[in-house]
Amino acid sequence: MAPASSERKPVTEARHILVVDDDRRIRELIRSYLMENDFLVSVAGTAAEARERMRGVTFDLMVLDIMMPGETGLELTKSLRGEKRNVPILMLSALADSDDRIAGLATGSDDYLAKPFEPRELLLRINNLLRRVSVAAPARTEVRFGVFQLNVPRGELRRNGDLVRLTSAEKNLLRMLSLKPGTPFSRLELSQPGLEESARSVDVQINRLRQKIESDPANPVYLQTVRGAGYALYVDEEAAG
């Protein structure tokens, strides 16, 4: 999947999307495409994993497959709406019948897209949904800590103005942590189910990041371990908006 035209950008930068699909290939294709178009993306393979992802994290939108083992997308949507969770939901399904679309919308989803679909149509539908959502607070586009400045949408880190080379995994970690500075994210929230990155590899990525941003990685000031909770990024409050 190639990124959309540079003239077409997400309505608000650094929006966090949860992609839920039991087909690993599909969810990873969606994840890669959306990240190329400046979204922060988490993925889940089941409704249970999605619930774990949503614990303590507020997503701006959910892309949800209908047909999943165990709790289906329809059942998850109905449950979330019953819990008064108003996250916009874009449903995906290989079932193109009008009755299936109606069923999806009736449970509380906001839009419906039949498989197979064009990636650009998915992007357009996501942006359209986000335009309809009233956002209480502006998205955080930049954070600073010490001599470092992070452009959140691009995951671009600079030290005293000089670019710091980061891997895609390191960029994703920093972008997620910067959504709520000072708030710990668990290893489960920072890892990506269905990928080679596991909770253990999150520790490896964190250690590599510390080598790049901490003067004393063994005693971190910015990227700290919160005992029993996970990891948190501490930033300069006066420059965090």
How would you describe this structure in keywords?
alpha/beta; 241 residues; Arc Repressor Mutant, subunit A; disordered N terminus; 5-stranded parallel sheet; 2 domains; Rossmann fold
Describe the structure.
It is built from eight helices and eleven strands. The chain folds into two domains: 16-132, Response regulator (Rossmann fold); 142-239, Arc Repressor Mutant, subunit A (Orthogonal Bundle), CATH 1.10.10.10. With 241 residues, it is an alpha/beta fold. The strands form three sheets. It has a five-stranded parallel beta sheet with strand order 2-1-3-4-5, sandwiched between helices. It has a four-stranded antiparallel beta sheet with strand order 6-7-8-9, covered by helices on one side. A two-stranded antiparallel sheet has the order 10-11.
